[in-house]
Amino acid sequence: MKKNFRKMTKKAKDFSAHVYKILSKEPTKAFNYKQIAAIIEVNDTQSRNEIIKELGILKKAGKIEETERGKFKIVSKAEYYEGIVDMTSRKSGYFVCPELEDDVYIPFINLNHALDGDKVKCYIYNRRSSRKPEAEVLEILERAKTEFVGVIDIQKNFGFVTTTNAKMYTDIFIPKNEIGAAEHGDVVLVSMVDWPKKADSPFGKVIKVLGKPGEHNTEIHAILAEYGLPYDFPIEVEAYANQIDTSITEEEIAKRRDMRNILTFTIDPKDAKDFDDALSFQVLPNGNYEIGVHIADVSHYLQEGTILDEEAYERATSVYLVDRVVPMLPEVLSNFACSLRPHEEKYTFSAIFQLNNKAEVVDSWFGRTVIYSDQRFAYEEAQEIIESKSDIIPAHISLTGKEYHVPKPIVEATLKMDELAKILRRKRMNAGAISFDKVEVKFNLNENAEPVGVYFKQSKDANHLIEEFMLLANRKVAEFIGKQKKTFVYRIHDEPNEDKLFGLQNVISKFGYNLNLRSKQDISTSLNKLLTEVQGKKEQNMVDTLTIRCMSKAAYSTNNIGHYGLAFDYYSHFTSPIRRYPDVMAHRLLQFYLDGGKSVSEELFEEKCMHSSDRENLAAKAERDSIKYMQVKYMQDHKDQEFLGVVSGVTEWGIYVEIIENKCEGMVRIREIKDDYYTFDDKQYALVGEVSKNLIQLGDEVYVKVKNADLVKKQLDFHFVRENK
Fold this sequence. Notes:
Blueprint: H1 16-25, H2 33-40, H3 45-60, E1 64-68, E2 71-74, E3 80-87, E4 93-96, E5 104-106, E6 119-125, E7 134-142, E8 147-154, E9 158-163, E10 172-175, E11 187-194, E12 203-211, H4 216-226, H5 235-242, H6 250-253, E13 257-258, E14 264-268, E15 277-283, E16 289-296, H7 298-301, H8 307-315, E17 319-320, E18 325-326, H9 331-337, E19 345-355, E20 361-372, E21 375-378, H10 379-388, E22 392-393, E23 404-405, H11 408-430, E24 440-445, E25 451-457, H12 461-482, E26 490-492, H13 498-508, H14 520-533, H15 540-550, E27 555-557, H16 581-594, H17 602-636, E28 643-651, E29 654-659, E30 665-669, E31 678-681, E32 686-689, E33 695-697, E34 701-710, E35 715-723
Parallel strand pairs: 13-20, 14-21
Antiparallel strand pairs: 1-2, 3-4, 3-6, 4-5, 6-7, 8-9, 8-11, 9-10, 11-12, 14-15, 15-16, 16-19, 17-18, 19-20, 22-23, 24-25, 26-27, 28-29, 28-34, 29-30, 31-32, 32-33, 34-35
Helix pairs in contact: 2-3, 4-17, 11-12, 13-15
EC number: 3.1.13.1
Organism: Flavobacterium difficile
Catalytic activity: Exonucleolytic cleavage in the 3'- to 5'-direction to yield nucleoside 5'-phosphates
């Protein structure tokens, strides 16, 4: 496969990986800087100078040699590389290494006890013959995880634990004296202690009994344990948090900009418990608008070097499961001291902007403040003001359940900020931002946390109002520090994967949609066009999901490459320190630099960024698993019901069907489709009937019934009823 090097921009500062890859690809050939620049597709003087500089650094490090003046080649070495194992569900894996152009296949026999995600040293062979290369694991450098969740099977003198993770190809042997209080069939958390060279399975011990399979709390705790996420705070951390002085003092107010007399309010989900952002609004004498984005001043209470800060850093994020929140901070801070509740004075960290009628930022100010929130709105209440332009909130929308009148200044502020937010959003879209308004699946839960209904959450103008001003604050804070060339925590997002975009094109063309992949601007324009055109169509959720999968993952880094999805050159996370540790770091760094501090260690903060990105990814996986679990639980009670669904995936073993009314997805095995003998045609991405030549393909509507709902594996199997023709 030909490597498509992303076109580098002037702001990119690291060419080393690109240069090294080019030279590694052709180890016998020497390149000069002009040839490398041509391959990377850069032609400006700054980029060429960066390439020359990187060649010098790589030469000094002994990774490349200068064969003649200005020409460089890779230093020949044995084919040993360090990288990560990415397991498949079929007991084989792939070796992922930044130095290699493609992932390398690892047969099961060559894994040598390596597991999914492990950092390993591999030997690559067949690299210069016509056969595809393969890898063999020589050494496990670092285990990705040593704790696993599974069901224990207890025999007379031992037990073994089987996990539900399809990528975990072995069970774990538990000696009799390490079973502890576990009973046969329990869901347990086990620690892998050893894996003797000649043993088929690793040895482990039970460290926690989570409960019986299928029980609600057992499965939720199993999800958290699977990803190494906590569900309660250590006693000493709770005790430390409870003794923090959370009073508002005159002494502290004197150090801050006092905003208590300026109209301020919050807009949040109706079930929110922590309010970490508020907006203030006033019209200035010059006719411009002063809009304050006020964020809970978590770093005032969360002091570096304390056990509370260590716990918050380790967690790095709050985890939002379907039925509960596992907070980053103890409740005394997240729901009380740092929550910007109405009619209470609060310490905040603020970004205050002066905007004109064109939503242009005329002036900005950053610093610590004290505010007083005059009103708390739910999104639905703010939306009612925007839509009706009225001061009346009807009883069925009101948070109190009673009709009430909103003070005129708040109505006027809401309408003006909505107007400005729409201009900001339009500018963003015109600059190439991508509008992902993906439908969120939510559940109505009864008092036992059982799902009794499904509904879909979609963003409206009130959501966009808050979003645009949060984006403005995040962008301007990053820009303020970034232009000073000081170390900072950026939220970065690379350009989409080109191969995945071609794959998306193949799928959506079956529905009559097209992408223009000629340039960066064309790609974002046509992606937005696709996401708009697909709204309300049966294939919307599938297309939205596939489009998101084409995107690079956003991450935290001190190396600013901009944010592709938002079309920002500078972007950070500043607005949610109650639930994200990178925002806490951003607050601390901003205050340090406002006080005249010199640039901090990039290496130290890059390590913290990587940790935060890793924890965010684990939290996202846990959140997805909890949604799958609830969907399966919901469908358990609807086994006799016929559902209309859309074919969302086609494989050689069957079709995946997503039910239109609740977005639950399950599998129909190929043998379940009885009206013909079907085989998989990979060119048409369809099942083809041998006799009838009937096609079942992506986007087709079919009726299904629930065959099996497995709560432990979080999987749905469907009976095929008929096509909707």
